[in-house]
Amino acid sequence: MQLDARRRWFALVVLCLGVLMIVLDSTIVNVALPSIRQDLAFDDASLVWVVNAYLLTFGGFLLLGGRLGGLFGHRRLFLAGIVLFTLASLWCGLSTSQGMLIAARAVQGLGGAVVTAVALSLIMMLFQEPAERAKAMGVYGFVCAGGGSVGVLLGGLLTRALNWHWIFLVNIPIGALV
User: How far is CA 153 from the centre of its chain?
Assistant: First the structure.
């Protein structure tokens, strides 16, 4: 995949925005769990499924997402994963029942797995020279690490200022931008 330098770095920005959305979502939910429990009448045993549904599908489909990217095209799968994750975020944000939220979180995990798997592949294909690849991976790593921290802060702000639904709805404009 040969692109001029400007287009490669722009592509990295798009990839990092997509991955940022995934990383944010993995930490932002933890802060809102008490509000979700109260609003949807979760008990402690069932509340863990808000997190586990996401983690199980994310972990379970990570390898498959990478393989599908190889079969159908990494760019195509990245965009499909972003669309799926964004629509699932909307579904989460509009959830009015426990089952609806848990199902939506499972779909989010699938979309997140696809995005994460193919984003790394795309970075490896876009940046072939070792020095540029190292810089690109440094940017990617910074986004992943920083996204986790920002997710905790943003989760607290959104939950306190608005309500827990907004921790999911914040993904809609990011997904549309990507």
Answer: 17
